[in-house]
Amino acid sequence: MSTTPLSAETAPAGGPTVRIGVLVPLTRPGWVEAGQHLLAGLELAARDVNDAGGVAGRPIELVVRDTAADPRRAAAAVDELAQLGVAALAGEYHSVVARTAAARADALGLPFLCSSAVLDALTEQPTPWVARLAPPQSHGWRTYADFLLGAGHRRIAVAAQSSVYWASGIRILRDHFASHGGTVVEFDMGALAPNALCDELVDQRASALLLLVGSPEPAVSIVKAVRGDQRLAGLLIGAPAGQPEFAEWTGLLGDDGAAIPFLRYLPEHLSPLGTRVEKALRERLATSPSFVGFEGYDTVAVLADILRSHGGDRARIAESWPRVAVEGTRGRIQFSRTPDISVWQWARAPIQVVDRDPAEPERLRVLHVG
């Protein structure tokens, strides 16, 4: 099991600590940049909590484990962290990994506040042990579909890899487009090379192509192939899962990575807390912070509030989800039971569709608000 050392700001400062287990992808094949942003937000919030006196005078200690986008590794990490006596689990970015972690946490009776994963079915059955900050995939991806429909797209193509997460996204898109008289055509990128995909797109006459694939590959190669094919000059490329959010995207694609709409979970205007956190994250990361960093910060802010009120007893933490009312970086956080969602859900998480400005790829443009 790979372990990320505690940073000085989250390590014990004397006296007993309140331990929070943290799951983040920090090595390949995990989305490393997303994991770094998530961890930066978690650590910044832990530092702020400890600088303000901790939890009832006890400092928070983050015990970090790298999941590397591997569900089996995540399950082993949950078991280990439970044995180490953590009060709760936090984090994770990849939906398939978070689903495994949530199932294990549920079985062990360990509270888990999931930061970023969006898969609707985070657990097979309703559970009192798991809560989530990110909006469910069905809500976010329907918002994305509404953006496409509003822009006049009725026939879209998806370039997809095999995964529960991508398959769920395709179902959401297909159902939503069908209800509006639209069509979704699916291409299996396990069987097609990017150039062959271009030929298929010409034949299918879709007006938009959505990248339901991993980043950087094969997403980057697909974008390069499509952008380089004059037959597809008018085709919109989209990435609802957020591949263009991170600096690596622009570094690998340059101008070709612009004008590719993606989902981002930020409000139109950050709160004063959010503005302060944005500045601090920018200094830590030496780049613009993604929404994932804010999700990390809000995760620890919520858990710290619960720990102050209810202590470190796991059952009492889980019982407190419906009583949470915390001012986070992106709005007031409260959890409720949402139809067809098996975990406690922040129902008002903000949703935007944005892209990178072709004239200035470092700048993000808000195209649609959910």
Please give the share of residues in helix: 25-40%
How much β-strand is present in the residues? 15-25%
The biggest sheet, with number of strands, parallel, antiparallel or mixed sense and barrel status, is: 8 strands, mixed
Helix and strand succession?
EEHEHEHEEHEHEHEHEHEHHHEEEEEE
Distance between the termini: 40 Å
Q: Treating each run of at least 4 consecutive H or I residues as one helix, how many helices?
A: 11
Mean pLDDT equals 95
Give Rg in angstroms: 20 Å
Provide an overview of this structure.
By secondary structure, this protein is an alpha/beta fold. Helix content is 39%, strand content 21%. An 8-stranded mixed β-sheet has the order 1-3-2-4-5-6-15-14, sandwiched between helices. A 4-stranded parallel β-sheet has the order 8-7-9-10, sandwiched between helices. 51% of the residues are buried.
Which features does this protein show?
single chain, 370 residues, alpha/beta, globular
Would you summarize the structure shown here?
The chain is an alpha/beta fold and 370 residues long.
Secondary structure layout:
Elements: E1 3-4, E2 18-24, H1 32-51, E3 60-66, H2 71-83, E4 88-91, H3 95-108, E5 112-114, E6 130-132, H4 137-150, E7 155-160, H5 164-178, E8 183-188, H6 194-204, E9 208-212, H7 219-227, E10 236-238, H8 247-253, E11 262-264, H9 272-285, H10 291-310, H11 314-319, E12 326-328, E13 331-333, E14 335-336, E15 344-346, E16 352-357, E17 360-369
Parallel strand pairs: 2-3, 2-4, 4-5, 5-6, 6-15, 7-8, 7-9, 9-10
Antiparallel strand pairs: 1-3, 11-16, 12-13, 14-15, 16-17
